[in-house]
Structure formats: C-alpha cells, structure tokens
Design a protein that fits this description.
single chain; mainly alpha; 0% strand; globular
C-alpha cells in the first residue's frame, strides 16, 4: 500500500518550508565563516549530528540499528563525493555575498541534467535544454556584472562558486546510480552523514585540531544548522514519498529568493538590478525544467495505464 498523498494546503506549506530550509543554508555558511569556525569542524560536527539524528529516527520508526556492507560502502562513496563541494562551499562563504551564493547554488538542477546528458542517463528534452541554457545565461550575467568584474576579483570568486555546484551534480549521479536495493532514505542519510564526518576527521585533527580554548559561543551556529538539516532531511524524504520528486523539486522556486532575502536582511547586502534579473532568469529556467519533468511524468503514467493488446 502506497503512502497517502498530502492534502493540497499541507503540500503547499511543505514546499514553502522545504524551500526556506534550502534557502537559509547559505546564510548559515556565512554566519559560521564570520564566527571563524574552521571548515573541518563544521563538516565533522554537522555530519555526526545529522547522522545520529537520522539514525535515531530510523531506529524509532523501523527498529533497525545496524547497517549492511552495501549500505556502508554506499555511505562511504557518498561521503567522499559530498565532502569536496560541501567544504568548498563553506570556504567560499567567506568571500561571497549570501545573495550571490544563493543564486549560484540554485543552478544545481541544470548541472545535474547536463551531466545526465553527458553520461546518457537521460534523453534530450527541448524544454530541459532550454532551461539549461537559460540557467547558465543567468550564471554568466551574475559573473560578468559583479563589482570589479574587469580586474577579475569578485567575478573570480563568483565563477569559482560554480565548481561545488558542478561537483554536487557528480555526487547526485553517484547517489542515484549506486543506491543499494531495498535501502530506505533514512539509512542513506545516516550512513552518508557519518561517513562524511569520519572522512573529514583526520583532516580536522591534522590541519585544524580542536582545543578547549578554541570553542566559543559562535559554535551555536553549527548546532542550529545541524538541527535544521535533520528536519530538512525528514521533510525532504517525506515529500519524496508522499508527493513525488516533481512536486518536491518545486521547493527550489522558494529556495533561491529565500536565500537572497535572508542575505539582504541579515547582512545588509545590496540587491542590484542585475541580481534581480539573474534571479528572474533562474526562476524561468526552473519553471521550464519543472514543466518538462511534469510532462515526462504524465507521458510515463499514460504509457503505464495503456491496456495491453
């Protein structure tokens, strides 16, 4: 028996809430950078926290405690591919405004589709290729119109911010291709988070070893974002299960403007006409991408229901 769908009002609230969770992450990247918290500390502490939170929920809902060899190997692969873009994003947060970083981060769906085309995991779709083009046009505009673009200062950081976005696409491709048979989402989230923390642990001990004197009240940001990420994972998995991936993907519509709004509100970052234009193009691209996914789902459903002759 499949899970019952969410009522429409609840579904709308869930999309807005999930998008807000996604949008606030760049803000906490900046807050943690401003507090001087080392990147390795964030990766290790948040990984342990998210992994423990999801594992506890898994135990409460399924009674399972241990993991299979396939699940642990999957978590290790995800952790290896996740840590690179995650750490790079945390590092870049020191040098980029939240408003810019939020827009760049929202290019992820287009990078994922471009990678899927290259590896022939998905077929070409006119609407999605158009969305890809519009999305990268938005990236080009935001890179070329940043302050001091002529001397490659701010624009260099903006261009560099595309790297973790592309690396996340490789992570997503592996996560979908290597998913062990029968594994549930809470298991995937917990083993991935724990593996991420354990992989980063030697780097923390060698490069940025913690000490009692080093910890300060600024570490509250790590605790809060860890809790947010646990709630976000639960909300995301629930939406995927109850509403499907196409509906869940609509949260990106909220994430991009939410990230820009949080950056402007909390840090007083300016919002110029070019940034608004980039955000508008991004939302158009996301709309085209979502429309293509909806059309593909409709065709797939019609094919499935077609009676056999």
């Amino acid at each position: 028996m499949s899970p019952r769908s969410l009522p429409p009002p609840v579904q709308v609230l869930a999309i807005v809430g999930l998008g807000a969770f996604w949008g606030i992450s760049p803000t906490f990247y900046k807050l943690m950078a401003n507090e001087g918290i080392p990147v390795t500390h964030i990766v290790v502490l948040s990984g342990l926290g998210v992994g423990t939170g999801l594992a506890l929920l898994r135990w409460l809902t399924t009674g399972r405690i241990g993991f299979t060899r396939a699940e642990m190997l999957y978590g290790l692969g995800c952790g290896l591919l996740l840590n690179g873009p995650f750490a790079m994003g945390l590092w870049l947060a020191k040098y980029l405004p939240v408003t810019v970083f939020a827009v760049i981060s929202s290019m992820a769906p287009f990078c994922s589709y471009g990678l899927a085309l290259i590896f022939r995991r998905e077929g070409a779709s006119t609407l999605r290729i158009l969305a890809l083009a519009v999305g990268f046009l938005s990236s080009a505009i935001i890179i070329l119109t940043r302050p001091d673009a002529t001397d490659l200062s701010m624009s260099s950081w903006t261009l560099l911010a595309l790297v973790p976005t592309v690396l996340y696409a490789f992570y997503g491709l592996f996560a979908s291709m290597a998913w062990p048979k029968g594994m549930d989402s809470l298991t995937a989230g917990s083993v991935e988070s724990w593996a991420s923390a354990l992989i980063a642990l030697p780097f923390m001990l060698l490069l940025q070893p913690p000490s009692v004197d080093q910890f300060h009240w600024g570490y509250w940001t790590v605790g809060v974002i860890t809790l947010i990420w646990v709630i976000e994972r639960i909300a995301y998995f629930t939406m995927i299960q109850r509403s499907g991936p196409v509906t869940t993907a609509q949260a990106v519509y909220v994430a991009a403007p939410a990230g820009v709004t949080f950056g402007a509100w909390l840090f007083g970052e300016p919002i110029d006409a070019w940034l608004i234009a980039c955000l508008g193009l991004l939302l158009v691209a996301l709309y085209l991408n979502n429309r293509a996914l909806t059309a593909a789902k409709r065709v797939s459903g019609a094919t499935t229901r077609e009676p056999q002759s």
